[in-house]
Fold these 2 entries.
Entry 1:
Amino acid sequence: MLLYILGMIGIAAFAITGVISSGKKDMDLFSLLFLGMVTSLGGGTIRDVILSVETVYWVKDTSYLWVACLSSAFAFFTVRIIENRQTLFHYADSFGLALFTVVATEKVLLLGFSPSIAITMGIITGVAGGIIRDVLSHRPPLVLGKEFYATPAFLGAALVVLLEKNIPSHEFNSIYAVALIFILRVFAIHKGLYYPSWLLYKKR
Amino acid sequence: MLLYILGMIGIAAFAITGVISSGKKDMDLFSLLFLGMVTSLGGGTIRDVILSVETVYWVKDTSYLWVACLSSAFAFFTVRIIENRQTLFHYADSFGLALFTVVATEKVLLLGFSPSIAITMGIITGVAGGIIRDVLSHRPPLVLGKEFYATPAFLGAALVVLLEKNIPSHEFNSIYAVALIFILRVFAIHKGLYYPSWLLYKKR
Amino acid sequence: MLLYILGMIGIAAFAITGVISSGKKDMDLFSLLFLGMVTSLGGGTIRDVILSVETVYWVKDTSYLWVACLSSAFAFFTVRIIENRQTLFHYADSFGLALFTVVATEKVLLLGFSPSIAITMGIITGVAGGIIRDVLSHRPPLVLGKEFYATPAFLGAALVVLLEKNIPSHEFNSIYAVALIFILRVFAIHKGLYYPSWLLYKKR
């Protein structure tokens, strides 16, 4: 149940980033609904298609589809009155990343897959929607920037696996992992947190 | 049967757009066959993979593969003699969009899915091939432009659902919906049809 | 067994290209692991998802996942000491293209699909990982350049089909086809091998 609600909030968060992301060009309502929905539903779709254990989640339960659609529409009309959209964009993106990574890792573990598959799938689910959004909006994917992005997702997914092994089904496991990812991302956004240079591949 | 033929024509139309789209750089015959085939087969492939009800259509019936391959080759040799390629590009793209959206919506309805899934899948099938083409050719995706694109696809898919509910299996249902999408797109191309500004998300 | 080893080497080769490809911007270890893994696992994932006959290969056998991860990490630390990275990039990419195309064509034939499906899937598997890498790194996809790329993949896949029909399960069949693709690509890189102009679609 908690996973379900967290998943829905993640969808709304990513839908908002899809709408803001497009801010560099004129786009109409339906194009933006499309971009918002692809951003928010894309990651989980790729996860379900690769695992092919169940029907893709939003085909099975169309509530996801409606939440993605309505939150994109809501964002379309409200986002324009917000001053600092770039900050909102990064916060919503980090929140979506945290929620999707954790929810997907939990879900894949519950389906009985190994920890390495669960962590990989968690990261893919967390970052794939944002990658599609960034490629379609002609911006370099956030995940491939210098600041912490893939790392928090990895650490959060690993924390889920660790907690589920030691204190299985504890109700706050997801919350801890979501908090870890989100806080690391907020530090990365505000402090430009990145690795020491020997763990960076420098541009030439 | 009508759906089958319309699907084939859609594949040919999208194959042509794939060939023209590449016109900004030198490309050889096989690269263009590849781009044409990805453009024309991509949308339906994504639809079938997400629904995972049947084998992907061109794996089951390789006629689709051959039509995509041969129409790309045909376009490769003939398109260069045409003066106004951009107009042809937009017309062929609109025609493919109309056909794929309608055929996919009908197909998904026939498979027993709900109207919201059918409309979503119709739109995805219609626009996905073009998106892949545009991303690979480094042009901004048509679907994310200011002019009507996602809207006609949505209206056409909705019309299919409406007609199938009220006059099921009427033989002209598909034709009406195809015409609606195509005509709206032609207006969008020639008159720059777009929404009033409060339904546009302005660039800043 | 030979196919298994060739597949693993192909994964390592593509992982290296993923790491080098990013060389235009600062990227951290985890972002590069992600890019390397997407590049090396992407093509086969798309193949398995489209055929949907078996579980995606790296979900079934996580050795692939670990090889992709470890060779990306290895490349991250070693590639920076190499002078001529562009040459290494193109060689590793050609080697990966050759191995993936051939291994996939063999695998799809063994699953009982027709030659046209096997050749198509071979080409898709060979080029898809590189396309994802190039799109994410904001470079024009190699496959859509003027030099031979799709053509060697096609010829190699066709050679596999031809050899398997005439001398089935001969142990060197794969080696011949890999050599054909790789040698054609090396010529294309060093001699700028491309088609006569009537088989090129000129930029305007």
Entry 2:
Amino acid sequence: MTDQALSPPVDAVEVSYEELCGALAAKNLSPLWKVNRELMPLEHRSSTLPWLWRWRSLLPMARRCGELITIDRGGDRRVLALANPGLQGRPYTSTTLWGAIQYLGPHESAPAHRHTPNAIRFVIEGEGVWTTVNGDACDMLPGDLILTPSWHWHDHNNSADRPMLWFDGLDLPLVGVLEAVFFELYPDETQPVVSRNLSELLYGKGIAPHEPRPGSVRDGSAGTARAPAGGLASPLLRYPYTTTDAQLEAMLAGTRSDVATVHFVNPANGRSALPTLGLSMVRLLAGAATAPVRRAGSSIVVVFRGSGYTVMNGTRFDWGEKDIFVVPSWVAAEHHALERSDLFVTSDRPVLEALGLYREEMLDEEQSVSARFVPL
Amino acid sequence: MTDQALSPPVDAVEVSYEELCGALAAKNLSPLWKVNRELMPLEHRSSTLPWLWRWRSLLPMARRCGELITIDRGGDRRVLALANPGLQGRPYTSTTLWGAIQYLGPHESAPAHRHTPNAIRFVIEGEGVWTTVNGDACDMLPGDLILTPSWHWHDHNNSADRPMLWFDGLDLPLVGVLEAVFFELYPDETQPVVSRNLSELLYGKGIAPHEPRPGSVRDGSAGTARAPAGGLASPLLRYPYTTTDAQLEAMLAGTRSDVATVHFVNPANGRSALPTLGLSMVRLLAGAATAPVRRAGSSIVVVFRGSGYTVMNGTRFDWGEKDIFVVPSWVAAEHHALERSDLFVTSDRPVLEALGLYREEMLDEEQSVSARFVPL
Amino acid sequence: MTDQALSPPVDAVEVSYEELCGALAAKNLSPLWKVNRELMPLEHRSSTLPWLWRWRSLLPMARRCGELITIDRGGDRRVLALANPGLQGRPYTSTTLWGAIQYLGPHESAPAHRHTPNAIRFVIEGEGVWTTVNGDACDMLPGDLILTPSWHWHDHNNSADRPMLWFDGLDLPLVGVLEAVFFELYPDETQPVVSRNLSELLYGKGIAPHEPRPGSVRDGSAGTARAPAGGLASPLLRYPYTTTDAQLEAMLAGTRSDVATVHFVNPANGRSALPTLGLSMVRLLAGAATAPVRRAGSSIVVVFRGSGYTVMNGTRFDWGEKDIFVVPSWVAAEHHALERSDLFVTSDRPVLEALGLYREEMLDEEQSVSARFVPL
Amino acid sequence: MTDQALSPPVDAVEVSYEELCGALAAKNLSPLWKVNRELMPLEHRSSTLPWLWRWRSLLPMARRCGELITIDRGGDRRVLALANPGLQGRPYTSTTLWGAIQYLGPHESAPAHRHTPNAIRFVIEGEGVWTTVNGDACDMLPGDLILTPSWHWHDHNNSADRPMLWFDGLDLPLVGVLEAVFFELYPDETQPVVSRNLSELLYGKGIAPHEPRPGSVRDGSAGTARAPAGGLASPLLRYPYTTTDAQLEAMLAGTRSDVATVHFVNPANGRSALPTLGLSMVRLLAGAATAPVRRAGSSIVVVFRGSGYTVMNGTRFDWGEKDIFVVPSWVAAEHHALERSDLFVTSDRPVLEALGLYREEMLDEEQSVSARFVPL
């Protein structure tokens, strides 16, 4: 081999500890013993900080962006990312989750593209907007959840005279780490609309329009080939708030509880609607609270309606309508509602479960609240 | 071994062919070569015959039974089984499926019991009846589908002044062959009703009240134990016709087709609502037809609404509202609607799929109709 | 509708109970109340009887068949089915399982065919035989298990000067009830042999020659299409006794137990090697016994080596080498080894599990043996 | 809310673009439009660089570490991480994979601990070492693969007079990003050894010691509770090279190919032995080559035996015995063997597949080699 001459003779590394460390670095080798306890600490550590963004701060900034930034100037989306202050300037809400506010002005369109990161849109304010996903125009009303799964074409369109704001949740930080980000622009500005809320018509009532997949792995060797059962992402792309609201009411009434949770699932397999994002809505009646728990994996909470507070590792975060906060991995958290509240939660839990890394711990006693979060 | 003396000496079987056959029978041995082509025929054979039962015959008989047979006298259910004439007197509609009409008089109750065979109830006529399934009272209106899955307590109750009739579909013939029939009477006449249509409230809107099961086999070794994800049967017990109807309409409108099919699935896993029974509703607009196909496994069709005919292996079976017919395994079948029609189909397809035995064949040309079925 | 005139007027059925019963039969309707307790008995019932076939009876009969029946005369296989005396003359060992002895004379071949019922061959005596399965010649030595899964071409060939006998286990009774029996003759007498024990080379060491299937349902929508993960049946077709024996020894040594069981599984998914048949080998050391248990579903036990007895519902069945017996559904059974014994077990358990019908009950106390089985 | 006064009035943000950017940063908001094309580039980008570490550089450094670093001083492991030069000083081989050389001196023990990251050990040099995993001592010989799955206790022990070196592969970078790293020291220095290679005895022959899991999701509602089928990680902890070698030879002979690949799978489910790591061995005969392909996700290749070269994105990386190189995500790669070679591959592919993010592209033509890699 021709490069042999370039390599140092073996005995050249009979060196001191300091020289060894230098030689290691020169060869792109890194001694574990220097970073051992940092990589595998005896107590769980999280870079992600518990944090809360107030709507009354977000809204005027988003509006001002609407004035100053055109969709053209701003790339193809006008988005303010919720950048966790623990993540050293990266525009991520947690190490795995991207949370942001997207602002679409009157009669604007955000052009069509697709990417491998999965995304969800949860509508906070406005109406008259639809997102076209692979040709199916999905209406967006406050409280609606719209999926734009991995590698699905999507564009957003506002036909109204008012701007619209929604929450964007993506698995972008995780897909970035996996070095699996692929992106493509659609040939035209927007896709042709071939149907309107069709996925909801087909999949939104809990009975399937297509043959359910077999109970076992696949059809027998004797079977004729049939259409594939589809991918990991939900064929249902729109979960309207009217349905969410009705189900939560029914659950509260039916179970006589003061907290109810619905999970947005893929009707084709009963799993999470997206393979990387857990999506749910928690309704708490006035005075209700959830038990303190800590979980591996992080989540972003959008306060759709109501007010209350969440205690995270002993700090109280007061929240009102449209505020957004993040619960980092393994941080003890409990929610308290001062009035009837709806919390929309986006998490990375399906990832941890799929990889055998999920764990949770119910905490017996409410931790004392020793501090109160005051945003900068 | 003490019974050695009872056994014939080896050379005792140096016998003629005829003597050998006798000796074999005496030892409970059966020569394959005598039944070879019967057990494994070169062409597929089905004992189950294509057959149709007319409602105008069924109804008066069911009424007369209502007069003559008390629930007491009639065991705990007043049921007329659709006995396929090909099955030598056994009360089964096909070799795997039990189809029947159940009649519940005004102010009658059919007492609570449970059994391992799975059952469904599809309401044909009447109202004011509910079936309590493990404590959850499920209302029964025409076109509604009610599940009473394996080993779930159930009783039927009619609070109205009119009798009620519904279709019973069970996997009883199959479970019988598996010698897995277990049955138990409830201690009391009926169960206490602890909720009303609760399963529908919880599971009927396509968003899950409980944490979806992980995408992979099970939670990680690091995970804390959590509640099991449930059994094979659907937690949703009631599929109201109002929903079925709305979805079919939406599908026809959304896809601009003249045939639409919904499958009743288990929302927890996207598979068939029951592990042994495939359940679907087919809507055909006037003049529409399905392509000829033959499938391994049998199905029973209840004409909920409309009129038309089905060609099975070249024989035309005319049907009208509430008629019931059976499509045997591997019989070529095609449906033609003369007016807008709803066909409720119960099949054994999930069984064949789970065991790798399902196959189907699309037939290119409509077979000529060479005969017309005339019931005896 | 033209056949209306043929139908009796409704009031014609205002008849007596006896007349009603006749009218029902004429219309292919069967009243449940007459057969209620027979179909759903309060105590579990099984038609299949516990039974045992002695090798010293089987062997001379099989030999005599070898002399009297040519493969030509005898259809394409020379097989003696173990016909359970509880099944009214049907040639089945239980309601779901076919058990039989197949005899292949010196230099004979059983011609190639395929069928949807799954089959296994467990070698009892002889050597020099191979079964070609879809082109792969699988050697057959005593104690070897050979699979001929659903719809796989197979022929048996004896190149030796001695006859060979093996046990055939099939799901034929079940597939027959499902009316899913399909059969096809191979164009030639035998298949060309394209490989020899290749499946064993590829799949027999617990590490996979092909990419393991993804942990989740299927690859993502972004993924390129790849080869299907295969069917329900094992790609491993031969499980040699040398491996079975070595593993059983290792387990007994490693766990210091006196009973060890191995299950023959599909290495591609860890499930049973065939979707309809459970297959295992139980080794008991001299004096060892299994705890009494009753299980839904039946099984056939081939005594490969050793001697002992099995108590079934209070009757003792003594067994020696190569005897075969059947354990019916829900019959309490316990095995006792007088010397080191290997029991090869074929069951229908995967079927009951796939359909949610499996149950078992461990019995605390050994039931008293009140009778001893003496074959006719 | 008390902190309301701290928040700026809405109209205070009627500011210039520059002021807005400052205000956004102050509120932990990050504008997407500045990083749009960096986060979602039009062409796929990978920080991980193709890289190769030569054994003749690694070995003397590892030896010198053995002299200078005690296990005590070095934390609990003496490990040199292969630090990819594209990852800005982080000690990771790719963004998801940790690759390293571990050196254990004569008569040393690396103390027992457990952590949520999954790890594998692939033995490069030495003998007389075993790793105890949850009480089962697994022997380590060159070419053996040993699993220490997530949250399993493990310690390494060298009873020989020679040092030992092996390759460590972990999913630590990924689990770190998921903020799911948990770590625990065992109370004692090492675990008691309760068995020796037991997992191999029980699970290493492709037939299962325990009841295979049901084909469908879980047992029926009627079933009695049974032991859980286990976690995501393989119960087989040791894959000896003797088996790997024999299978590769059989595959080459049986398929008459010049390249064969075995995948190390979990015998309980046929999936990858660990939920986060793909593990395989590729054998190339002299002169053989693999087709060029690029795949989402990265892999680390340990040259166990042989020599050859790998072309990655047009650069040729020559390799010899025990060299280690990394193939980054979406880098076109093809392997060429100059002599018979065994390549041990650790990848993150199961993660990408589980999340629906896996894709690959076969490249038709070999890319021209325009450069040759010369390590610094």
